[in-house]
Amino acid sequence: MAKLWAVIKREYLERVRSKWFLIATFFGPIFFSAIIIVPAWLASRSKATSDIYNVVILDATQTGFGHRLAVNIAGDSTATGRMPEVQIVLPGDLTEAESVATRRVMKNEKNGYVVVDQQTLAGEAARYAGRNATSLADMERIKSAIRETILASRLQTVGLDNARMKEITFIPLDFSAERITEKGRAGSGMASVLFGFAIGFLLYLSIVIYGQTIMSGVLEEKTTRVAEVVMSSVPTDTLLAGKVLGVGAVGLTQQVLWIVTTYILLKLRSPIMARFGAAPVNFSLPDISLGAGIIFLLFFLLGFIFYSALYAAVGSTVNSEAEARQAASPLMIMIVSTAVFIQPVLLNPTGTTAKVLSLVPVSSPIIMPIRMAVTGVPATELGASLGLLALGCIAALWLASRIYRVGLLMYGKRPTIREMAKWVTYAR
Q: What average pLDDT does this structure show over 75-88?
């Protein structure tokens, strides 16, 4: 036990004292807070540009649709220069009119043009071409104006005036969704989804980063022949366990610091956003009990042990960084394939796919915490997931330790799968 503690202490202190650990720990909470704050700030700043008024509306409907569309694009403003130009054209002259409008855009006389015809009146199609075609805010403004004009035209045909039409069509609905579990109300549904995504992303990121850290550390010790000296006084099982637990403790420390500081920054988000001139975001963290927090940490530790043991085994079988990246490809495929299912699980956390993935040790460290964040998980499923993951960790440690003890002393040609299978069968 003393030797195991010595290895854990060395691996832990060596990494927490590095400047990269301090930099990542400091900027991590800023990054996670920015995921919520920056999009809201950008949304508050993403308004239609003034170029949206400098367009031509080619109206081939012969119904005055273009003039009503110009009013809707301009909104409440009637100032000079803020009303799009309208050209009434015959359907047969539309091609020529578009060519003229295109040349005007090319000469910077106009920013673009909108084409409305009988298909537009039927609610089927409308076209826009211009310099700002890639501006999402401008295109959404024009698209909404076209929809409003189509609706107004249809209502006008049944005898409703403009005031009456606005009264009927303007519905300032404020819709919210709240999650209810077996324990009662559990906060905003959207907040739970965002929290679940953050949990999954955090676990995925930590496993990838620190798993590869262990692999690089093992490779460095092997290439510098330090491992030969250490193995003369420390059993390989103890060395492997110490590395995994020591680096896992580093990851756990960083996770706790990230969570605490991110929580503080989110609490201070209103004055921060006010300083940037953005409206505050109505976002509240879901209620997470102490027991749920402990389970989250258990999944992180077990998932980390599972993948880190395999990464250590990979590091012991190669002789260079290039070989390590190639040999670790299967592990990366396993992790990335799990990350691909994060969105489907968030959309349907009680589906068969989510249930199966939350039981398989390869994916359960990421998928099950996500399910816990967005919906209630039965205790039987939770226990089965933890149990299977623990068995997976034992199997991964057993397999990795047998490869590790032989691979550290093997140099030269990279071993094949068949040769590593023989290593597993060697007597201790």
A: 69
CA atoms within 13 A on the CB side of 72: 22
Q: Which of 69-78, 274-283, 310-319, 416-425 has the lowest mean pLDDT?
A: 274-283
Residue bearing the bigger pLDDT, 119 or 161: 119
Round to whole Å and give the CA distance between 153 and 147: 10
* Contact in structure between 242 and 227 (CB atoms under 8 Å): no
H-only helix segments in 158-235:
162-169, 189-223, 226-231
DSSP annotation of 281 reads P
Confidence of residue 384 (pLDDT cuts 50, 70, 90): very high
User: Position of tokens 């205790």?
Assistant: 379
Which distant-in-sequence residues (6+ apart) come within 8 Å of 93 by Cβ? none
Read off the pLDDT band of 324 (50, 70, 90).
confident
Q: What is the dihedral of CA 64, 66, 72, 75, to 10 degrees?
A: -110
CATH 3.30.750 fits 50-169, yes or no: no
Where in the sequence of the chain do the CATH 3.40.50 domains occur? 50-169
Token readout for 166 is 């606005």
Residue type for position 75: G
